[in-house]
Amino acid sequence: MQYEHHGLVHEFPEYREKIHTLKMTDHHFKKLFDEYHKLDKEVFRVENDIDPKSDITLENLKKQRLALKDELFQILKNGK
Fold first, then answer.
1. Per-residue DSSP letter, 50
2. Residue 28 is assigned to a structural domain of this protein
3. How far apart are CA 30 and CA 5, in angstroms?
4. Cβ(27)–Cβ(46) under 8 Å?
5. Helix-strand-coil split of the chain, %, nearest 5
6. What range defines the domain where residue 57 resides?
7. Which of 10, 11, 42, 77 fits a 20 to 30 Å CA distance from 17?
């Protein structure tokens, strides 16, 4: 089974412009955005057996990614 990336713009297409603007103007958002995408790539690699890891490790990576996604969404939805 082929797994997909969960890029932030893919997850929140209605915030496409705001994501771009915040990446360019908000250092904190950019840092979280970069961390999210780094984790997303790592999860993708594990799920697709490119870089096999234990199920527990994969679960922890997904939890970290979800926590970042929640934080990023709160910024997008409410400002800071």
1. S
2. yes
3. 19
4. no
5. 80, 0, 20
6. 8-78
7. 42
**pLDDT for residue 1:** 62
Residue 43 lies in a domain: yes
Domain contains 48: yes
Task: Please check whether residue 68 lies inside any domain of the structure.
Answer: yes
- Where b means 16+ CB within 10 Å and e means fewer, 5-29 reads ebebeeebeebeeebeebeeeeeeb
> What token pair was written down for 22?
């915040």
Provide the number of structural domains found in the chain. Answer: 1
Q: Which two tokens stand for residue 34?
A: 């970069």
Q: What is the pLDDT of residue 78?
A: 93
